[in-house]
Records
---
Amino acid sequence: MARVVFNNVRKEFVDEKKGTFTAVENSEFVIEDKEFVVFVGPSGCGKTTSLRMIAGLERQTSGDIIIGDRIVNDLHPKDRDIAMVFQDYALYPHMTIRENLSFGLKNLKKSKAEIEQQVKQASSILGLDELLERKPRELSGGQRQRVAVGRAIVRNPQVFLFDEPLSNLDAKLRIQMRVELAELHKRLGATIVYVTHDQVEAMTLGERIVVMSNGIIQQIAPPTELYNKPNNMFVAGFIGSPAMNFMDATIENGKAFVEGAQIALPQAVADGLKSYEGKKIIVGIRPEHLYGEEFAHTVSKEHTMDVTVQVIENLGADNLLYFKVGSRMVTARVHPETIARLGERKRLVIDISKLHFFDPETTQRIALS
Amino acid sequence: MQLATAKPKPTPPAYRRFLRDYGWAYLFILAPVLLFLVFTLYPVISAFIMSFQKYNIMKSKWIGFDNYTYMFQDDIFWKSIKNTVIFTLATVPINIIITFILAFFIFQMKSRWQTFFKATLYLPSVASGVTISLVWLAMFDPTSSGLLNTFLGWFGIDPVIWLGQSKTALFSLILMSYLGSHGSGIILYLAAMGGIPKSLYEAADIDHASGWTQFTKITWPLLKPTTLYLLVTGVITSFQVFISVYMMTQGGPNFATTTIAYLIYESAFVFYDFGLASAQSFVLAAFIIIVSVVQFKFFSSDVEY
């Protein structure tokens, strides 16, 4: 296995009519050997382009890509020793599963015995033994996905690339395949680069996550760090479901004034925000860190806000309460037995240890230490 | 006061309800069904009956299998079959290869050039066969001023009587077919090529497949349904080749270009033997059906792109 390095990589697409579009801007990162890294971001953020540049299916406009010890800028995809699982699986529809799995090995002119043995090994890892003589159209979505993974592992490459491999599956199967992929990573001990737009997939699979937006890497961090210490408002809003709430606030005398509440900040936080005294900032709080007054057992009830509930969504395990703070819609994820009625005032408790502060100009996180 | 009670409406009979609900639908279906019955099914059945008759517009005479017996004993019939088979074998596969090669190269081009070549190569398909034959008659002019003979003259080759001698007449018609319309086939191939997902080639690139392997293992197999369609329709069309023969050689010289379709025309509209012409038509139909079934059996593919 091997590590993957991006050194100041930039990718531009030139269109005669639309002009130049920068898909990836000066990207820099190191994916360590045997690491499972997930690229996540909204459509068009450059995550798939980054993956395709690692695969060699796109040539970067500038910068270097290193796989293992080699700069692979000018290497053809087949010479990069990578394997890729495509979003649409890209199984050869006219070949049987056995032929699909052995296609790459045959092209490498491996012996029949070796091909047979490697196909057998991959098929038994992925539970494809019974399907080897079938054609892709005779398989379910999950089985096809497994074949696509099988085609990747059969060649035992240095790096595995996954391009939104679960996006065509239904919700239940996606969860099952997610678990299988995590187990496969443990089993193979492989370097995996995985692209998805689904932040749940990213959080559950990735050892580290690369969050991208508009071709720019916003943050690279392990899932918990992304959740607890997002670098900016984009990351804060993208990671977590429902998304983090943002409220306009003014800092005065160690207090954050938001509509409907004045939050007395702990001394350390107040000190950290001293330079914002009298200025506007953005306060961020995740929906799960707002509590109905009657269920705020784990946090201090000192800091509250009174809101008028506009929408209630019952999810079974939780209730989502929607209300407005200033012009912004805010969500609270509360205990399902929390008493709240539409149009009525409700007192919510804020866990102030979970507050995030952002500069409204730069949208960057305000460092408090 | 007495209250007037409304009389319950009697339920209409089932056929009326059916007509009310579905009448219009059946009326619309009736139009094409009638057209089919009058202009397709009736002529086919009456031609089949006619093939067992000595046809006369006033009173036809039932003669059993005489038309078929005569036909199978007629040397010209076998000659026409031979000519048709030679024409088909010489034109269909090569035309498919030419079409495929043209489509393959056009597919690599930028969109605007693709449009240009598609339009240019499709143009002959919208021209009438008669017009095209007249152009080719001028090209096959046997004098030294004919276009093809002028071309041969540059290489010091004597003028060829293209259509006037047995050994070159059929070849001339075949040559005309090669340089004729590939437009519709090209459009079908281009559509099929465009339908093959790009990701298959990318996966093949990663799977160490060379350009040739990608062509033989991915492109060609996935274009099989299109090739089969072109093969079957090509064979049917060439079995029925008529316009070019009628316009350019009239089946001659010495029956060298008499094809089965031209023979049917001659039997019916030159010798007015409609019974024999019907029998020949049914043999042609049977031949086409058998060949088509065989082609489907050997070349059919269940993957479509």
---
Amino acid sequence: MNKEQLFKIAYDSILECNEDKALQVIRDAQANNLNLIELLSMGFSAGIRELGDLFGRGEIFLPELIYSTEVMKIATAAIEANIGVSDIPKKGKMVIGTVAGDVHDIGKGIVCSLVKSNGIEVIDLGREVPALTFVEKAEEYAADFIGSSALLTTTMTEQKKIEDILRKEGLRNKYKTLVGGAPVTKRWAEKIGADAYCEDASDTVHMILGWVAKK
Amino acid sequence: MNSMERIVLTLQHKEADRVPVYPLLNSVSRKATGITYEEWSKDAKKCAESIIKATEEIGADCICTLVDLSVEAADWGQEIVYHDDSAANPAMNNRCIKNADEYSTIEIINPRETPRMSEHIELARLLYEAKGQEMPIIGFVFGPLGILSMMRGQEEMFMDLIKCPDKMQIALRNITETLKEFCAALIESGCHAIMFDTLYASRTIMSAKMWDANEGIYIQELCEFVREKGAMVMLHNCGAGIYFKEQIERMHPVAISFQHIPFDCTDMDDVKAKYGDQVTLIGHIEPGFVFTATEEELREMCRKQLDAYKKGGGYILATGCEYPASMDFEFAKVIVDEAKNYGKYA
């Protein structure tokens, strides 16, 4: 099998949510001495990017997206186990979490998967993350982007706290901040001074890649 | 004209004295009595007292029994976490359905005897006794798929919907049978209508086909059951891209409470034109907008929606989902004020 054929199989394995196919093509790529980073980028990641676009256009839905991102995680882990995480080039770094008081993280999980698949290193802080932790972790990991998700009107105010802390600490221009979640709006992002409102995972990817391109 | 008369005319797609109004006053009502969210969620008497006080103070035209989305799941044994200032939620790391094989452990239960559903039935009774002659009391019931996701976890359930949907059907069947009895008890307690929350029937979550195969068939049975018991069917769905057409086909609701423009509509005028004569529209000011708007902006939004929907009846001015639990009552009063003044019929 040539390189393009292997890329296509990897790509298809994501679109078809086919874990077995994904793992088999990694073995086939190794047998053919194909660079696994290339397979990840040109095959699997291309698949997940397409999936994100299909989701953005409403042509596939959340269950399919979640299932495929699971396959992507498995494929990525298998490749990382073979080559070492540090070998994979990154375009930037993002810390992300669901804000304090909020336990919902399904959307945030999808954002993590899609952003990661697009070459951004993601530090997932999990659920119920205090505002100060977002900032501390961004500093600790030397992140470029801070993403926060709030699924309740009662927790949206935590996103404002992140902005307030960044301003107070003189760090506001060091990071690009992104806010999302069901009750969150563009208007809210503007009101609190966040850099972007992201409607969904696909939107987040485009926003970040846009910033990366301008760097 | 009292609220009951106003809403009855509205549901008949006739113009009453003004557009009825209901800013989904649920958990925020706890502020009327100064109790915590947990007390409000667990104690039917305190909850009823709060809702009645808030409804009277704000001047809403109906009452809905929505407490939180964990009411039903709790009674199948799902561990629930309660908070002082936000809604109860399932313990995310301790779902009662831990793998797909455990769907078969979900049996039919008696909601009249289980803790949270029986409290909910009692809440409906108290609300009906206090206000049921002057305004509609709407029993709120989470749909089968929503309940199942509280017990299994959304992410896991979504994957099961692709991997092994057949395994889920026994649980969905038993939840449906239990909900029939729950609805019957709510109706006996005085509820004039049952409002089903079909959370997943929207394009941003799953395909219409997947929803129909896994909830549509069950919700149809439930709606037919409710009508046989003499109550009306309503539905609430605050998802973006809500499926109106598919849900109307299955449920034949008299009213739909919604937050976003339906999937097959372009704008408010289109919603009115396509669906205004089929269902009463309840909505759809976004709570997120209420949270960030100025009073003037909120009034403007109310007027925009009243302009689009009020003609010929069949419209209740409302928030698209629960009024923000962290706010005070002032903006709810603004919404009511707009219905009372700008929403007047000539």
---
Amino acid sequence: MSRPFLEVKDLNVRFETDDGIVQAVTDSSFSLEAGKTLGIVGESGSGKSVTSLALLGLHRTRSNAKVTGEIWLDEQELVSASDADVRGLRGGKMSMIFQDPLSAMHPYFTVGSQIVEAYRVHHPGVNKKVARERAIDMLARVGIPQPARRFNDYAHQFSGGMRQRAMIAMALVNDPKLLIADEPTTALDVTVQAQILDLIRDLQAEFGSAVIMITHDLGVVAELADEVLVMYGGKVIEKGPTIDLFQRPQHPYTWGLLGSMPRLDREVRDRLIPVKGSPPSLINLPSGCAFHPRCPYAGRNGDRSFTEVPVLTGGVHSVACHMPPEERNRLFQEDIAPNL
Amino acid sequence: MSENLLEVTGLQKHFPITKGLFKRQVGAVRAVDGIDLTVQAGETLGLVGESGCGKSTAGRLFTRILEPTGGKIVFEGQDISHRNMAQLRPLRRDVQMIFQDPYSSLNPRHTIGTIISAPLQIQNIPTPQGLKKAVQELLELVGLNPEHYNRYPHEFSGGQRQRIGIARALALRPKLIIADEPVSALDVSIQAQVVNLLEDLQSEFDLTYVFIAHDLSVVRHISDRVAVMYLGKVMEIANRDDLYKNPRHPYTVALMSAVPVPDPVRRDRAQRNRVLLTGDVPSPINPPSGCRFRTRCWKAQDICATEEPPLVTRLDDPASHLTACHFPVVDDEAVTGRTPAAAPA
């Protein structure tokens, strides 16, 4: 049996800091097939961005970061691979779209020259003229008007939406097989967000890439993802096919996220149902289930919630929660679903 | 019309663009360019729009942090448009503001006790039980531990800091609170806590809110009436349910259809019914003639370029529903697909 296109096994990322060890990602495992989209949802500090940076090997340059586990991309293991090998893949077979295109692009070089550089690094034999044509072609593909003229502009001369388009052009210039988008639309207005999501969807259909979409917005995930991971305190606490996860969410934290969101597609509710408390510190994670201080049901499971870390169980749609599945289903049907 | 707490007519704020040694004015950013609004006592008016539409500038004009270039701001029957600092001081008791960024709106060198008591001290408000007690009551009111009186802002999370900002705004028991994107910087689970807190405080203290945000779903949840802004103008204003059920302005329709729906089953339908606006918002330095939205509008005709549509009741809408559009969207009108490429401005 061959491996899935991307397989992550027991990924751990920790940072040593003066305040203690930050356990940013703990035992995270997931996989993704080519042409599919995986959504990773979580709040700030849930480990979603750190996971994506680990995939690209971007923690390697940081001496205080420690990454363990396995990352298999197209039958090649990346955690143990050499820096040169990972560099060969980064920007080529796998690439990334960052949240803030203004800080992700170099202010001193034109947008075009940065795309050309990305292309020529992975195509050493190509001369400047061909690379330039390729870059202009990419700018046109992502919907930038007058690409040949905009090629010579600097990042600050682009509007927010255009800048994000240029970033996407840069990320796609080498036909990546894996595209990681880290909050690509968070800094954008809704109408521009709709344009960018539409663009990512079209380009994915065209290029057949696997996409990892990292976001805090459940709406974006519902629009784009085939499968969803919910992260909390550096751990994957629920994962499943998108439709299943939205219709039968299993983890009380996922319920909390859904209950916190006012929705345009439903009647107005009198009250939102927030999750009490605030997200945990990754230096000093709560014992047992990291969610227990905020979980309204933690007491129901005896001491287990406070002492024992729940593992992800249950087939395609799996969840890390101590509550017995029958009770969880009953609670969801009776208490949660009617209020969503 | 006596119950109008705040009345704004023809309000304008133009920021000059200067050039050269002598700061010659070469143009102006027309951030707010003629808006008419009323805010009634006890209601929440939502102000939505994309970045650069002038909603924050409008909020700063209402609180008179900024002085308008033109137009009038009347608060409780008194014209406050051009009052100077000293004349504004009594107004500050009645009108307070909550800011977007809980990290930059609190002085990092002051304890939260100092921060929250500042308005009381500046206004010489007597505190019979002592200043500390007054502050601790405020902390309790917004759901913070009163014992944290002596802590500094960096010791608090984003959500807690926003509560501190709310406590400070409440200290003077104002009548009107302008909340400028109060929950945008917060995580989803924390957003809901703060929204609920704002609602509780409103019913407890009879507060009136102007709630400025770009998130249409949060605005719908909290507001009684909603105004949609685009390029410094109000495009549409109506009671919440009227606006969200029967949006009339093409821009409102586009804005609403762009919000991603957290329901994967309806994904295809949502995408099919989406109006994709092409291009970007034009520059407020040189807004399009006539209707400002016409360059991105799929219904635009010749008249839109020459005549600016007034903000009036259209079709058979209730009198409270005003739309600035020559060709308002009728109920059940099919508005699908992409807008045509932007016409030259």
